[in-house]
Each structure stands twice: as C-alpha cells, then as structure tokens.
C-alpha cells in the first residue's frame, strides 16, 4: 500500500496555493493563530488522527491547530453547553443530524462567502454539499461520507453453504443458520450469533435504516409526520424479533454500542455487522480475506434505503479567528487530507479527484459503498431531529428490546416526538 510522506511532495503540491492565502490572512505579530478543534472519534489513540493534524500544522506555520477528542455520547450536548456560556472550540466536526438545530441556535458561522473564494469547491461532489445547507445557507464544509452496508464472514458463509442474503427474510434465515456453537481455529467450542445488533448508543440509525428499507416513512411528501402506521409497527416488530424471538443476536445486544458490536465481529462472536467504510481498516486488519461486504437487505417489496451520512466541519459563530478557522477546515476537504482520511481513517472520498484514484475504484469495500449510494435517502433537517435520533429513539428501542414497551408504543412515541416543533 502506498504510504503518505508527511511534508512530502504531494502535500506541498496540493495545498500550497490555498495555504498562501490562508496564512497571509492569519498572520499576527505574536506568532501563529491557535485554532481549537473538537471532534469525536471511536479510537482516539489512532495515530493517524494526530498525523493528519500534524501535517496541517507543519505546512501552515502561521496557524496552529490544537485538537481535542470528545466522547461521542457527550459531544452534541457539550457543544451546545460550551456555546451557551461563550466558550468552546473555533472549529468542530458535526453530524448532519445536528446542523438544523445548531443553525437555529446561531451557533454556526455561515460559510458561503468563504466557499465562493475557495479554489477547491468544484472538486467536491455536488451530492454532499446539501448535508449542511439550511434555507439555502451553507453552514459546514463536507469532510467525510459514510455510506452504510454490511460486513459478513465469507469463510463461515462458505462453510455453511450460504449465499449472501438479498432481502430481510433471507437475512433472518442466514442469521439463524449461523447462530449456535462452532469450533474456532484452535479447536475451542464457542457461541456464535448471526448478527451483531446495536441496542446501545448509536442504535437509532440502524433501526431507522431497517424500518425505512421495510417501506415505512418518517414524513410524507408534504412534510407531515407519517410514521405511525401498521407498516412501521410491523417493521419495528421484525427488528425486535431478531433479539426477542429469533435470538440471532448476542444476549448483550440491548446495551451493545459501537465498540461492542465491532469487537464481537472481529473476535468471531458474530457473523454479520451493519456499519460503513469507517471500520474497514480495523476489520480487515483483524480478519483479512475472511470478511466480505454486502448491501443492506431489501424489504418485502424489494425496496432498499441506505444512510449516506456526511460529517461536516463547522466554525463557531463566536470564534475570534474565523479566517484561520476556514483555512483549516477547507484544507481538511482538499485532496491530500481527503485521500489520507479515506485511506487510513475510513470514509468514502468526497472529492472527484480522490474518488477517481485506482485505490478507491478497485477496492471492493469502497465499490460497495458507491453501490449503496444509489439507495441513500436524506435524514430529516428538522430542529428536533438531533434529539430524536440521539436520545429519544435510543431509550425507546432499548425499552422495546427488553419488552417494557410494545412495537406499537414505540412507533407512537417516536411519531409524537417527530411532530414536536
């Protein structure tokens, strides 16, 4: 695999024109401008995050970025709390699910005037810009695109004579066939489960992808809440059944978050995992050619719905160093940084120049991401969506999995929350 050379010719050639402008704007008589940047990452000890920031600092001597990792469970509320007391970072990574809420609170600096003068704007795919656009105002710089698919154990499928499931019924049958006792390579008898269901934090995305692939809708074409339907209840019950009735998930699924479901897949406890390219490097390092990738299963009518989540970089509206801040977040969306991020930290390239590189065209995991793009639907851009997906649904799904509420009650409660303004 081609390795990046920090401070090498590629970095110099790809970023020098933009650096010259950004650095001249950021110069002060007291040394470099310091930009405080917040982000959340699943593996904060991954040295590649530090390498990315180090490359920017080394090639931008008039700007110094200080990076802080914030635990994912706290990140959204920490942003809001810090802003309300006049503190917090200059720049930060943000889910597209938060943009409407943050914009309504005036937390975000509008970026249209900066972007209009930025040479790299035409290299970014048109499809990712709307992720942080509210009422025709651009509030974020696209950084990475994460398109969901499913990982599966190719070796186990071959041993059991199983084909890749194309729809949900086939998915359940395959998951049941792969659940039970099995002998690992050392001869030890272990428990294996067909699917690593994520019932803890971050469970909402998986659930909503399932029910929307089933055919249920959150809103109708006029923007009215349309979730409280028999179809949504049926889809929800089918999802709960994976844990309650079919028992194709680990017993710990109710509380399992990101690290638990990925760890279970890597260690050979589960046979299928729903995630995205962000874990490609980690999973293939652990399993090599034993792991394959497939589309999320279609619903009963053959319909598929996939998540295409864009992580953006925003600038705080109260930052005192907005020009330097934009120099940093725009560099993170340029060729060198996008290629480094996509190769070593895991995401689908957001720029045409990087997506066209042979490494990404010929890699089956990136190819499956691109195939999944055709099924991507937008997440709501409502002010309360962030709390619905980050808090309300997390609690409701856990209660439903444990049998404390029914599928009908869960759907009704979600519908009520979606209707709040």
UniProtKB/TrEMBL annotation:
Mind listing the UniProt keywords for this protein, alphabetically?
Signal
Q: Which organism is it from?
A: Treponema parvum
Q: Which InterPro entries match?
A: Bact_solute-bd_prot1, SBP
The protein depicted here goes by the name Sugar ABC transporter substrate-binding protein
Q: Where is the signal peptide?
A: 1-20
Which locations, inside or outside the cell, does it occupy?
A: Periplasm
What's any one GO cellular component for it? periplasmic space
Q: Which family does it belong to?
A: Belongs to the bacterial solute-binding protein 1 family.
The reply to whether Signal figures as a keyword in the UniProt entry is: yes
